[in-house]
Design goal:
It contains three helices and three strands, in the order E-E-H-H-H-E. The chain is mainly alpha-helical.
């Protein structure tokens, strides 16, 4: 089984993936994918807000937000401090990360766990096979 090595652009984690699981991924997990998606959306919003239409839309949305805040006449409390993760949760996360690192060292697929050989690119499908072509066609 052949594997390719990919580096996640968000967390910089290097992972392997087999041809069966490869669907054009560039992120190691759903969490990183969501972070990347939000970042791309932020960049697109920034470009849009630089246009005249974007500025007008932003003004309109901000005015609506300010109106809602005026109607809401309650005192807000400061945010409570977040509770730290419990020890068992932290240990579970560390064990999971160690497992991921161990799997990546053994040249395993990050998703299905199959062991394989690392290559730079997957070879084309059908590479090296004889192509049965029909002679006497329109373009021959």
């Amino acid at each position: 089984m052949l594997l390719i090595r990919i580096r996640c652009p968000i967390c910089d984690f290097e992972f392997n993936i087999c041809r069966c699981c490869f669907r054009g991924q560039s992120y190691c997990s759903d969490v990183c994918r969501e972070i990347g998606k939000r970042e791309k959306h932020r960049q697109a919003q920034k470009r849009f807000r630089a246009t005249e239409k974007g500025k007008k839309s932003h003004r309109k949305a901000e005015n609506k937000r300010r109106e809602r805040l005026k109607k809401k006449n309650e005192k807000n409390m400061d945010d409570a401090t977040s509770t730290p993760l419990s020890e068992w949760c932290t240990l579970t996360i560390i064990r999971y990360l160690m497992l991921l690192i161990e799997r990546s060292r053994q040249n395993r697929c990050h998703f299905c766990g199959t062991i394989g050989q690392i290559v730079n690119n997957f070879p084309r499908k059908g590479y090296g096979k004889n192509k049965n072509t029909v002679k006497g066609g329109f373009y021959d």
